[in-house]
Structures are given as C-alpha cells and as structure tokens.
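note to self: dont lose this again. the chain is below, predicted strucutre after it. 494 aa total, dont forget to put it in the shared folder this time
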Amino acid sequence: MPRPAAAAEPAFVSEQVFTVAYGKIAEVYLQQVDFGRLGLDGLKGLATIDPTARAERQGSTVRLYVSGSLIGEYAAPSLSDSAGWAALTTKAVERARLYSPILYQAAPERVYQVVLDSVMTDLDGYSRYTGTQRATSERAQREGYGGIGLSLETANGRTLVRDVLPRSPADRAGIRSGDQLLAIDGDLTARLNEADMRDRLRGPTGTMVLLTVARDSNPPRRAPVRRERVVPNTVNASVSEQVGVLKVDRFNAATASNLRDAVLSTRQSVGKGLRGFVLDLRGNPGGLLDQAVAVADLFIAQGKIITTEGRHPDSRQRFEAGPDDIADGLPLVVLVDGRSASSAEVVAAALQDSGRAVVVGASSYGKGSVQTVTRLPNDGELFLTWSRIYTPAGYTLHRQGVQPTVCTSRTGQDDPAALLSDLREGRARPMTQFAGWRARAADDEDALARLREACPWKEHEPELDVKVALRLLAEPALYQRAVALSSTNTVAER
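---
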C-alpha cells in the first residue's frame, strides 16, 4: 500500500540530474551505449537501499516491483533515448518511494548515488559518479578554492599551523608553520572540530577572515586575511648529491607552474654544479591532462607529447611541445611505479619516447584513457571516459603502462650498481624489443602478459629507485647510453 498522504513529503528527486547525466553519457562516452541496458540497470540499483525493490523488462514494458508486488508499468523508450530513460527513471523512483518506507526516507543524494553507480558499472572502470560532498572536496584539490593557504593540525589540545602555502594570503599576513591558531572570527578553535575550522577558513574569494594567532611565548595577535583562490601545491623539491629531486604528488591546476618555479629555484640555488634532475612520479594517480601536457612541455623542446582518440570529435587531439626546455638540457631521470597512473604516465611516456629522459622503476599502472568531468545539477560530478591516450611512439598506455628503461623491481635485485651492470656492459634490452608486444597488447592477452612481466611491480625499498637515478646521473656516458635505448621505441605513427 502507498504511504498515507498525511505523511511528510520526501525530499525532491530531480529529473534534471538524470537528464544531464544520461545525456552526457550519450554524447561523449568512448563507445555508443545501449540505454535499454543502462537505464534498467540504474533502476536495479534501488535494491541497494531496499532489497525488495526490483525492476525488469519484458518486451517493450518496464515493470517495477516492491516487496513482490507490481507497483508500476512503463513503456520502454528506444535504446538511444537518453532523455526518455531519464524521465522513466525519475517516475519509477518516485513511484517506488511511495511503496517503500526505506526508499521514502532515503535522501535524494543517496538515490542518485545508487542509480548512477549502477549505470557506471555498465561502462568502464574509470567512469564514475561522485556525490556532492566528495565532488566538492575533489574540485577544491583539482581546481582550487576560496581560502587563505594554510593547513592545520591538532596536538595536545592545541590547533597548530602545519604548512603555509608560499605567496598565499596567510603567508603574506605573516603566519608561519608552528603558530598556534587560537580563534577564527572570534570563535575559539578549542570549541571547533577540524571540519568546522576548514569550512570557516574557506569562503568566497575577496572576503575577509580574522585569525587570532600566537607564536612561542609572545602575546596573541589578530591577523585579518583576505581570501583568494588557493590551489594546493603538489610539488616538493629537494637537492641530493647536486641533483634536484622533484616529487609530484598529483596533477592539479597549479602543478606545471609550481614545477617550473621549483626547477628555476633549484637551478639558482645549486648553480653550475647542478648535475641534473629526478622527476619522481611514484604513487602519482594522475589528475588534469592539460597539466600533464604542460609538465612534459617544460622539458621537451620539440615534437609530439601525446595524441588522444575517441568517438566525440573534440576528444581527438594532438599535443606538440613548444620550443623551450626549462632545464636547459640537463640530464633527467623519471621515477615510476605500479601506482603511477594516467597523467603521470603521460609525462613519463612523453619524456621517454622523445629521448629527453630515462625512466627508472617498475611498470606503471596502465590507465591510458581520458575522462571528461561534468558537474551535475546537484553539484555531484560525472567522470566519463571519452578518449584513449597514445604516446609519441604510437602505443596506447591502456592496460600496458610505461616500461622503465632501467627496471628496479625484479626479484633479488636490490643493489644499485648491479641494476646498472647490464646497461654498463651493453646487455640492456633496447625499448625496440618491446614494440611488438606493445603493438598487440591492447587486444592480445599473451603480449600483454609478456610486457607486464618484463618489469613487474612489487614493493621494494623506495630509496633504491633514487639511488639508481643518482648513480645514473653521476655517469654522463652511462646516462647517454640509457637515453639512446629509451628513444627508439616507435610502434606506429599516429
């Protein structure tokens, strides 16, 4: 029986969310989709909330059941009618909520999540729906947010400034790491949790926030700070043995700019004794593709960076390097591992194929696709795969990833000198030997297995990769030999 009319109305489920989501799938997804399957599977997702909810299709009719009873019948739209399936989904959800107390009480966001999660499982492993709360956080990391550029930590009942972003509003206001934050806009931090403090520090750009801070035994002071767009810094630079070590955690809207600054700062601080750079992309899950292209372009003076191919005309792109090299040709080693994915793989492959760098480590993850991000009317986000990535040598990163020129992950090999002995004595396998496997790996499981086994990823001492890189950079002739092996990896021109 339906719920009595006197009961409180449930929160509104918007048809627009499904209309925009389904329309975008139809427009940009890598392959054409069957909404007869996707739409029905979306409705089946309601069982995640109420296991008695069931949807099935018989001929041209979609039937909806709750607790074993038929509660609705709908004419199935055509297989390509995304708007029709969005409308059907909304009607069916509203109907099911009248007959299911569990669905009736579910928040709209929960309904969007289960329906769109079920739709996404019919696509590929990288297409996904992200709910409002998580999407807001991810957007802030990716694109920036209105804030003042500091992070906090709580220790022994005190709230301390952990890091201050250089040149941020907090930095210009004289706030430093280790300062104690006593109050935000007059409210004591002792009475606020971490989420409250974060929300109070963030806000529209141009607005003010008043901080009360104390340093050492000095009296507290008030610091008015104006919020600006803040993009987290994903680059960390250090120097080891006259080599600049550049660690990039992920690719957001400021990565290329921050990396450029780090390279220039390192060159200035070390001077003419600088022997080269290590670009550490281990554990980097990727991020914005345009930033990956920009990072590769920092070091490559000419030639192709990547190409992308998909169903939508705008997904077919070719990226070329501009005529400059921020490192002025200094030797470059790139570190990757099994967690290096997506944009990190784009950078590693472009630098390797162009002969600009030597890749050291283990085979990367193998995420060779590009996702387009759509912000939905509920502020959630839809990530849809719309193109495949091809390296300058012509192979796809999909499934196979990047093969290091110097592999550090084989069992029993943990001595830097021994790892470079094959290269030193002319026994190292040139990248051209991988070309046949790479050409077939996208569709041939045997070729893929051989390729992945050539340098399998496994946990090993992280410092081993760095030691190999530093040793390689200490011997210019050995480095040049590795570069020569790296840059002859053409599969097919694209």
